[in-house]
Automatic annotation (TrEMBL), chain A:
<dbReference type="InterPro" id="IPR004165">
    <property type="entry name" value="CoA_trans_fam_I"/>
</dbReference>
<dbReference type="Pfam" id="PF01144">
    <property type="entry name" value="CoA_trans"/>
</dbReference>
<protein>
    <submittedName>
        <fullName>CoA synthetase</fullName>
    </submittedName>
</protein>
<dbReference type="InterPro" id="IPR037171">
    <property type="entry name" value="NagB/RpiA_transferase-like"/>
</dbReference>
UniProtKB/TrEMBL annotation, chain B:
<protein>
    <submittedName>
        <fullName>CoA synthetase</fullName>
    </submittedName>
</protein>
<dbReference type="Pfam" id="PF01144">
    <property type="entry name" value="CoA_trans"/>
</dbReference>
<dbReference type="InterPro" id="IPR004165">
    <property type="entry name" value="CoA_trans_fam_I"/>
</dbReference>
<dbReference type="InterPro" id="IPR037171">
    <property type="entry name" value="NagB/RpiA_transferase-like"/>
</dbReference>
Length: 269, 252
């Protein structure tokens, strides 16, 4: 693990990479959004675990995204994701519409080093009809019939998230947000921003160890206080819904989006 | 009897539809379904029995999970979730739900957020209640433009769950999976069959004179306006405050 800072970490992202990002309440590293946009590596294939919001909308708005694999993209109570929706209408991004457990299943397959994971449901949906990477097979353990969908392993190049703390050995506290671990297990590179870096080894105490993603899976950590803002962070601070609504309004047009993104004030007030 | 607000009728109807469930899951932005589940729990506890477990996604107080956002779906796949609610930008007469958008996919003319967990939960949760307050022909269509989740499945496809009812701002329908199709079960106060026919883009079965949706009794209303709105305010403060403002306006 390398103790880094967000700008340096963004350099891990290369054009055409597959990048996994967490759901809005799990710990989104909004602190990385600007550095990623400044770094400018494009043609990204985003994997939203299992849905996307502000960060996805901003990366799409910045023109860095080729594909969005997701179960949904929205700004929650602030409404639809304006830049994402505009890109869909223009055909500017390729969609891989999914359902939440299918995204989890793909990551779990990768976590186990397996080529796929079978999943119930999906048969008869237009999601399945539009996914040429998903396959339907008959359950080989049944006496015949019983079709089931195979979800291929999702192996992101990079996973990026934000959590309350890491220790100085690179162990990262993820608490009960276990999907962050699944994302990390599945990914080549894992970039984590944290509220703070603590002195004690988080693996030394059995109580904290169960909620730790070990340094083994972590490429780099950067300290970024209030790094999920304007999203909230579990156990730390609530979402700034006024700011998310302000973005939703501004980003209704491409010009409004650009104006919002070039503002100097991109930190919590 | 005091006047009953339209949303109170919805909440009380949901509580009735949920009777008997052990575990109900509710979406993060679904205050009316959550209130219905909380009302059922309050009624059961007032009667000296145990109410349902309520999981509210995204809530801290009502989250029993420790395995990330995958656990809800795993739990449903194991048969541990008895009831769930689904909305939909479009719902058709076959119980198909569209959460993706209108027009030609993928370049939808109107894009909604996406299918979320519907393409799985609709298959494995036994009692799915379709809930959409807006009752208009643009929501209730003959055929959805995109099937996020199908109302029924062909024989041989694993299907332990599916829709049982459709609750709207105007009435309550039951789903008959053998047809498949909806039957109007009752009409909410202030609405009538002709209006519902006009507002529904699909054909449905109905009696010549459908009955009215039952209104809650005094003790149910007291529970709702007291304990339930207090509990609701923890997770949906805006909604609970609005309900209480509306009640004050009715009394005035």
């Amino acid at each position: 693990m390398v103790l880094s800072e967000p700008r340096a970490m963004a350099k891990h992202i290369e054009p055409g990479m597959r990048v996994a990002l967490p759901v809005d309440y799990a710990g989104v590293s909004m602190a990385m959004t600007r550095p990623i946009i400044e770094h400018g590596a494009g043609n990204l294939d985003l994997v939203c675990v299992p849905t996307g919001g502000l960060q996805v909308d901003q990366l799409v708005g910045a023109g860095l995204v080729r594909t969005v694999e997701t179960s949904a993209v929205s700004l929650g109570e602030a409404g639809g994701a304006p830049r994402f929706n505009a890109a869909v209408k223009e055909g500017a991004v390729r969609l891989k519409d999914a359902t939440c457990p299918a995204i989890h299943a793909g990551l779990i397959a990768a976590q186990k080093g397996s080529p796929f994971m079978p999943l119930r449901g999906l048969i008869g949906t237009d999601l399945l009809r539009h996914r040429d990477d998903w396959r339907v097979v008959d359950n080989p353990l049944a006496d015949g019939g019983d079709p089931i969908v195979l979800i291929p392993a999702i192996k992101p190049d990079v996973t990026i998230f934000h959590v309350p703390m890491a220790d100085r050995f690179g162990n990262v506290w993820i608490g009960r947000r276990r999907e962050l671990a699944a994302m990390a297990y599945a990914s080549q590179t894992v970039l984590v921003t944290v509220e703070r870096i603590v002195e004690e080894n988080l693996l030394a105490d059995e109580m904290s160890a169960a909620g730790v993603l070990p340094a083994l899976y972590v490429t780099a950590v950067a300290c970024a206080p209030r790094g999920a803002w304007p999203y909230g962070l579990w156990g730390e601070y609530p979402a700034d819904s006024a700011e998310i609504a302000r973005y939703a309004k501004a980003a209704r047009t491409a010009d409004g989006f650009s104006a919002y993104m070039t503002q100097a004030q991109m930190e919590p007030a | 009897m005091a006047e009953v607000l339209p949303r109170e009728v919805l909440i009380c109807t949901i509580a009735r539809l949920l009777d008997g469930v052990r575990h109900v899951a509710v979406g993060a932005s679904s205050p009316i379904p959550a209130a219905g589940a909380m009302l059922l729990r309050a009624m059961k506890e007032a009667g000296g029995t145990v109410g349902p477990r309520i999981s509210i996604l995204g809530s801290v107080e009502h989250n029993f999970f420790t395995n990330g956002s995958a656990e809800l779906f795993d739990c449903a796949g194991q048969g541990r979730i008895d009831a769930f609610f689904l909305g939909g930008g479009q719902i058709d007469g076959f119980g198909n739900v569209n959460l993706v958008g209108t027009g030609d996919y993928p370049r939808s003319s109107v894009r909604w957020p996406g299918s979320f967990g519907s393409a799985y939960l609709y298959f494995v949760v036994p009692r799915v209640i379709l809930f959409r307050e807006e009752h208009t022909p643009r929501v209730f269509v003959e055929h959805v433009d995109f099937i996020s989740a199908p109302g029924v499945s062909p024989e041989g496809v694993f299907r332990s769950g599916g829709p049982v009812a459709l609750l709207t701002g105007k009435g309550l329908f039951r789903f008959d999976k053998t047809r498949p199709g909806f039957d109007l079960e009752s009409v909410h106060p202030g609405h009538d069959l002709a209006e519902i026919k006009q507002a529904t883009g699909f054909r449905f079965g109905h009696d010549a004179e459908p009955r009215q949706t039952p209104l809650p009794d005094r003790s149910t209303l007291d529970l709702l306006r007291g304990r339930v709105f207090d509990e609701l305010a923890e997770t949906y403060p805006e909604f609970a405050a609005q309900m209480r403002r509306d009640l004050v306006a009715v009394d005035a």
